[in-house]
Amino acid sequence: DNNLNTGATNEIYTFPISYAQQRLWFLHQLDPDAHAYNIPAAFRLKGPVNAATLEKSVQEVVRRHEILRTTFSLLDGEPKQMVAAGGLAGMSIVDLGSLPEPEREDELRRRVAEETKRCFDLEKGPLFQVSLLLVDDEESVLIISMHHIISDGWSMPIFFRELAISYEAFSKHKTPVLPELPIQYADYAIWQRE
Question: Which candidate, 159, 129, 133, 124, places its Cα nearest to that of 147?
């Protein structure tokens, strides 16, 4: 297993949490080892995948969305969003190609199940994981798992769309063309609390 991580800066910005995040934070305090609030997705990718380009694409989405750089800490008795200025994400790369073919599918299933049951540490983060399982030269499986405190059914398609746009652009040595984001989730939480 290789783990590619971005260099995170030490700058952290503190924001209030939304009411939905507060509920999820409270439930996490009751059972921090639960994986009931994970949002997993796995995709079989046909054709060769450039892992470095994929990792760069993940980092581009993380750069754009502060919530993907967010952890949660208790400050003065209140849970707060802690947004890191630099990236917290990493991408695991696992090469299953050396396994005999019958064992590959079993190992693939085992790793997908393992990722869906990952326990996230809300205070340390990151609160999502991207794994690329290389099956052979023409097939791989992309697994993405996020804690529900930073994502939901509405935001996951945005993540995948921006990941695909970034991967296509970086594959052609171009800069992804995505609109600047007028607000971040922390802005919504501030508005809601006010």
Answer: 129
What does the chain come to in residues? 194
Nearest partner of 93 among 51, 139, 63, 58, judged by Cα: 51
**CB–CB of 6/87 below 8 Å?**
yes
**Whole-angstrom distance, CA of residue 170 vs CA of residue 63:** 15
List of residues 6+ apart from 189 with CB closer than 8 A: 15, 16, 17, 18, 21, 81
- Count CA within 13 A, CB hemisphere, residue 107: 15
Token pair of 182 as six digits: 């007028």
Between β-strands 128-136 and 90-95, what pairing exists: parallel, antiparallel or unpaired? parallel
Which two structure tokens, joined as six digits, stand for 148?
């529900």
3-state secondary structure at position 6: coil
Q: What is the DSSP letter of 148?
A: T
- Tokens matching residue 124: 């340390």
User: Encoding tokens for residue 114?
Assistant: 């393992």
Residue with tokens 């073919």, as numbered in its chain: 101
DSSP 121: -
Please name which of 150, 109, 159 lies closest in space to residue 126, comparing C-alpha atoms: 150
Q: How confident is the model at residue 118 (pLDDT cuts 50, 70, 90)?
A: confident
pLDDT per residue as tens digits for the range 150-182? 999 889 999 999 999 999 999 999 999 999 999
Nearest-angstrom CA–CA distance, 51 and 106: 22
State the Cα torsion 23-24-25-31 to the nearest 10°: 120
